[in-house]
Design a protein that fits this description.
Layout lengths: L6 H12 L6 H15 L4 E8 L3 E7 L2 H13 L3 H4 L8 E2 L7 E2 L9 H5 L1 H9 L8 E2 L8 E6 L12 H17 L5 H26 L3 H15 L3 H10 L5 H11 L15
Antiparallel strand pairs: 1-2, 1-6, 3-4, 5-6
């Protein structure tokens, strides 16, 4: 939906996200990805938390390919999302409207993008992605997360195109800041990252149990949480614990009882 169309609907969703008062912020972040798809010409969206103590950690994605790409950036320590984290200087350009936005460089072999992110570019090409996705979030002085946008076919983006995403993301930031007025963000972010692992495990259980594609398992998990009026994490925990002899269940219990936030690391590549 182009910006300017459905302005009333966008305003209503921005207000709803900003007023979020649920117990599980993963519900908020998954809802953000759904709304981004409704208001922008993109095919997928994902959220990566910027945790002070461990660095960027992916926590939510609208589909599995987006999740795999976010995870690849995290595991390899390179990519557009990683460049958006504090301490990095992403490439920018100045479009005709004067607004700055990260450049969408090609990921083809020997391209500037492939030279900047060689390992991620290789992984992205295996997923059929030829250009790095744009990343954006609000302009709050302390950035809490990165919203990454994906399209099936390469297309140019301007800040005007992504204005709805920035409004929706800003609303989510307001909800986050309101929940943590004492500034204890790292603890909350680590807990959210831990919960995202449980959700991934539950998706795997549902996919195996019902013979579903992981994208369909994600939808079923969300439907079940809504039907039961429970958070995604609570629903996912119940699903994983219902398979006591599955290794996934043991890992989920560890996730609930301890800190299993995934630290970022740089992949070690052995020269051919």
């Amino acid at each position: 939906m182009p910006f300017g169309e459905g302005t009333g609907q966008l305003t209503a969703q921005v207000r709803r996200l900003a007023a979020f008062d649920g117990h599980d912020l993963l519900d908020l972040l998954y809802d953000l990805t759904v709304q981004v798809l409704a208001f922008l010409p993109v095919d997928a969206a994902g959220v990566t938390l910027l945790i002070d103590t461990t660095g960027p950690v992916p926590v939510a994605a609208s589909d599995e390919r987006c999740w795999r790409l976010l995870t690849a950036e995290h595991d390899l320590g390179e990519g557009q999302t990683i460049d958006s984290a504090p301490g990095h200087s992403p490439r920018t350009h100045t479009p005709p409207n004067g607004n700055s936005f990260p450049v969408l460089t090609s990921l083809a072999p020997d391209s500037p993008g492939a030279q900047r992110w060689p390992y991620f570019a290789d992984q992205a090409r295996q997923e059929g992605v030829r250009e790095p996705p744009p990343s954006c979030w609000d302009q709050h002085e302390r950035r809490l997360a990165v919203l990454t946008l994906h399209t099936a076919k390469p297309r140019p983006f301007t800040t005007y195109d992504t204005a709805p995403a920035r409004l929706l993301a800003d609303a989510c930031t307001q909800a986050m800041l309101r929940r943590q007025p004492d500034g204890r963000m790292p603890a909350w972010q680590r807990r959210t990252a831990d919960n995202s692992i449980i959700i991934e495990q539950a998706k795997g259980v549902l996919a195996q149990r019902h013979g579903l594609h992981l994208d369909d398992a994600t939808k079923q998990l969300r439907r079940q949480a809504l039907a039961d009026n429970r958070t995604l994490t609570a629903t996912a925990t119940g699903i994983v614990r219902s398979t006591p002899h599955d290794p996934l269940a043991d890992r989920a219990r560890d996730s609930v009882n301890g800190d299993c936030c995934r630290p970022p690391h740089k992949a070690v590549k052995t020269p051919c």
